[in-house]
Amino acid sequence: MPIFQVGLQLFPGCMPTGLMATADLLQAANRLSGRSLFGWRWLALQPGPVACAHEITLQADTALMEADCDALLLPGLWAESVDAVEAALARQQPLVAALGALPPTMRIWSYCTGVALVADAGRLSGHAATATWWMAPWLRQRYPEVHWQWQHNCVVNQGNATASGVHGYLPIVCEALERQLPPELWRDLARLMVLPRPQPAAPVFQSLALIGAADPWLRRLRLAIEACPAAQLTSARLAAKLAVSPRTLARKVEAAKAGAVGDYARRVKLNQVAEQLAHTDLPLGRIAESLGFADESSLRRAFRQVAGMTPAEYRRAYQR
User: Fold this and answer.
1) Burial class (CB in 10 A: 0-12, 13-18, 19+), 282
2) What is the rounded distance in angstroms from the CA atom of residue 100 to the CA atom of residue 94?
3) Per-residue pLDDT of the chain (320 residues; tens, 9 = 90+)
4) Which candidate, 99, 124, 204, 315, has a CA 20 to 30 Å from the CA of 269?
5) What DSSP character marks residue 197?
6) CA distance 112 to 119
């Protein structure tokens, strides 16, 4: 099996923590497998020292345009407003041009404010993508050719992947590791290295994160549920998406200790609601519309039944 090469892209002002954590994950995968499945290179427009955020300087060993990589991981930069992101885009136009000139075969993974750099390079045009929520109105207006999907924390396409938040590298890299590794090796790596995202949540949603955490099949089911409008969620539809019979679907969900298919799907969908309540100021009606619920009142009833509190009470208790 050829080595899967990941380029860790440095640029002035970037936040490098996710790049260093990715190198750790790739090295751990190699050590657990006993062979070199992954390689990584530190990239910049030119080799040499790069002044990153927080007075950290890292060394790039390869020029971006000379790198022969399967994927490029582009981090975010320190910015607290849209004006700061726009100023950074102006400074980073040489990098934007280089990203646009990369061969289409190189996958570009970006997260947090780094998504704006990739969008500016035109590499997200015509694709589904996501980014950090507070940039949503600005990104939607500036890049209307991108199919923004704010209800998702991570969107993976064939040629690119995007994620929200400064820890957005984690779902992107984990998805790639899961595709490249044997299931049992990925299970061990996830147990040893991948910590759950630290955030407050009601017990019903905290327990959801633990159900089948190392089960690739259940993660596929969860992604299918999250992508499906709530009003259209049925066992038959989910079974068809996963190419199994409804009976097999029910058996697999029960074997993963996730309960009945309908109950599990309801919790997953309402967990998406809980995330929006905790991390955005969107009104409940907008959340209901974006996630495909029939109407706001039915969402409010379902949420209270599962979470034990109304959406307004949940937001007051758990919003950051």
Assistant:
1) middle
2) 10
3) 689 999 999 999 999 999 999 999 999 999 888 889 999 999 999 999 999 998 999 999 999 999 889 999 999 998 888 999 999 999 999 999 999 999 999 999 999 999 999 999 999 999 999 998 889 999 999 999 999 998 788 999 989 999 998 889 999 998 889 888 877 677 778 777 765 544 567 777 877 766 665 577 887 898 889 889 999 999 999 999 999 999 999 999 988 888 899 999 999 999 989 988 887 788 999 999 989 999 999 999 999 999 999 999 999 888 75
4) 124
5) P
6) 12
Pairing type for strands 4-9 and 71-74 reads parallel
Contact 229, 272 (CB under 8 A): no
Collapse the DSSP code of 137 into the 3-class scheme (helix H, G, I; strand E, B; otherwise coil) and give the result. helix
Range 199-318 has CATH code 1.10.10.60: yes
The answer regarding whether domain 4-180 maps to CATH 1.10.3720.10 reads: no
Q: How far apart are CA 249 and CA 317, in angstroms?
A: 35
The span from the CA of 96 to the CA of 126, in Å, is: 18
Distance CA(133)–CA(70), nearest Å, equals: 28
Q: Do the beta carbons of residue 276 and residue 164 sit within 8 Å? A: no
4-180 and 199-318: identical CATH topology: no
- From CA 111, how far away is CA 105, in angstroms rounded? 19
Half-sphere exposure of 249 (CA within 13 A, CB side): 23
C-alpha–C-alpha distance, residues 136 and 164, integer Å: 11
Domain boundaries, the chain: 4-180, 199-318
